[in-house]
Amino acid sequence: MIWNLEMETMPRSRLAEVQLRLLQHQVRRVYERVPLYRQKFDDAGVRPDQIRSLEDLARVPFTRKSDFRDTYPFGLFAIPVDQTVRIHASSGTTGKPTVVGYTANDIRVWAEVCARSLAASGAQPGDVFQNAYGYGLFTGGLGMHYGAELLGLVVVPASGGNTERQIMLLADFGAKIIACTPSYALTLAEALAARGIRPGQLPLRYGVLGAEPWTEAMRDEIEEKLGITAINIYGLTEVMGPGVSNECVEEKNGAHVFEDHFLVEVVDPETGEPLPSGTMGELVFTTLTREALPVIRYRTGDIAALNVGPCRCGRTFTRMSRVMGRTDDMLIIRGINVYPSQVEAALVGLPELSPHYQLVVTRERTLDELEIKIEVSEGFAGEAPARLDLAARCREKLRGVLGLTANVTLVASGSLPRSEGGKLRRVEDRRKL
Ligand code: DLL
After folding, report:
1. pLDDT by residue (tens digit) across 85-106?
2. Whose Cα sits closest to atom 29 in ligand 1?
3. CB distance 139 to ligand 1 below 6 Å
4. Which of 218, 254, 332, 349 has the fewest CB atoms within 10 Å distance of its CB?
5. Which fold has domain 1-327?
């Protein structure tokens, strides 16, 4: 089902007109209201009135994750904080999170794109929808929640985790659609199998899966083991949350970007030059309608390609491929974004530790595990109880900053690999995706 027929199927020539009008307005607005944007524009010698075509956007400077950090917490807001109705946040590259705000209208737009996403995934008004994305600062839970209500679904706000309860709710309330990370969908599949529940025995038919990278092989496995159609949903906090793009159930071949709200480009990650449709590069988004926190040419770090060709479902919005990689060292562990530099930020100031650490990510069956190896400082001669206590303190501090529990292993001074001139690999990702 197409939720917004008029917008989602409009001719691309008309879409370009809509986008240009919104872009010009948005660029003027941020120039007037957000000091960081004014500075960037001035430095680049670009004036808002010089944006006369969509191509002119290429002259506008990029926004990066570091711009959020430098203006933490509310410096990128285009309105006073007291005019927002909600704040969300995601991991920053250091100890402080990336903060975003929403006006009442931003929440309406977000619900609209999430309703479109759910409808594109196979949901119909009246269906029971189990929302197993985390509720809280993470955008997944509340974003999908509002979209589902707008679409007219019966929402079960299960939030993340607690597999036992998820299964009880699936069986008793009879959800037809579930939203969660793809890795959690596999966890659920195995838990159901362990209880002797066969795929197809539950009313569950569709999964709206995202927030982390996954593959076609994973899709096949999830579809087979859960007996559902698995659909890819993409989004990021800086741009809105879930619902920036979503696959259609008809084709399952690329996620339609909701281009009347999010203008998408693909650029060469090295040079920043725009790349033609079909070429892999870094996704860059400009929000066209967001009021509280407009972002202009935000460099996502996500590597993907666009396909503007027509789609069997009738939507005219361009499709993005799966995210094939990252330009930075961000990891996604159990759906939570983790930067190695956060580890450093969490542990700074503990004299018993050296600044050398390593992250090892594994996947036990379907669940991600993070081990953090930390070298103790040269002089540290703590015996077993002192080591245990130190490890526990590290675990607590890391949990505060990362938002997830890691296994901490203290290792001897000098035992972790050192850089030999090149990039030091602080991360060993042993998951097979
Ligand atoms: O993960 C928003 C979201 C919630 C999307 C629920 C989908 C469903 P962040 O926590 O800010 O926001 O993480 C954004 O996650 O830049 C990608 O690297 C990655 N990501 C999100 N969706 C996908 C996906 C939410 N479908 C970051 N495939 C993004 C691959 C994804 N990577």
Report:
1. 999 999 888 778 999 999 999 9
2. 236
3. yes
4. 349
5. Rossmann fold (3.40.50)
